[in-house]
Amino acid sequence: MSATHPMKDQRPQTFQELKQCIAEGRIFFPNQMEQVARRMLEHPEMVAFESAASVAKKCGVSQTTVIRLSSFLGIGSYRGLKDLCARYIRERSKAMSPPYQVPQPPPRNVG
């Protein structure tokens, strides 16, 4: 597979895999898609929680470019890209937050 072609055969399963593919130079994006990909890597919450139209406006590209990024990565749909980013955010927040503990009531004085 050439690095300039979409990732249809080796689509990233996680956000971390996507970052690794880019870092290793296995993915080269067309110019406008690269703008979206860079912003997505810096701000995955943008893709996870916003519409393709909103992301496009923030990246200065067309909505079609944002949607095509999903296909280019082999993910298929913008919904799939949103899910990939949302999963990453959930995993990251679990790793960063301490386990929740139920507060215990203060001891009662008997006597």
Structure report:
There is one protein chain. By secondary structure, this protein is mainly α. The chain has one domain: Arc Repressor Mutant, subunit A (Orthogonal Bundle), CATH 1.10.10. It has helices spanning 15-23, 31-42, 44-49, 52-59, 63-72, 78-96. Helix 2 packs across helix 5 and helix 4 packs across helix 5. Keywords: DNA-binding. It comes from Rhizobium etli. One of its GO terms (molecular function) is DNA binding. Residues 16-92 form the HTH rpiR-type domain.
CATH class: Mainly Alpha
| Strand elements, count | 0
Helix content: 55-70%
Order of helix and strand elements from N to C terminus: HHHHHH
Overall pLDDT score: 84
At the fourth level of CATH, the homologous superfamily is Winged helix-like DNA-binding domain superfamily/Winged helix DNA-binding domain
**CATH-derived topology:** Arc Repressor Mutant, subunit A
N/C terminus separation? 78 Å
Shape: elongated
Structural class assignment: mainly alpha
CATH architecture call:
Orthogonal Bundle
What proportion of the residues form beta strands (DSSP E)?
under 5%
Number of domains: 1
Which residues form runs of ≥5 with pLDDT under 50?
1-5
Radius of gyration: 19 Å
Number of helices, where a helix is a run of at least 4 consecutive DSSP H or I residues: 6
Q: Largest sheet, if any?
A: none
Domain HTH rpiR-type: 16-92
Protein name: DNA-binding MurR/RpiR family transcriptional regulator
InterPro entries: Homeodomain-like_sf, HTH_RpiR, WH-like_DNA-bd_sf
Keywords: DNA-binding
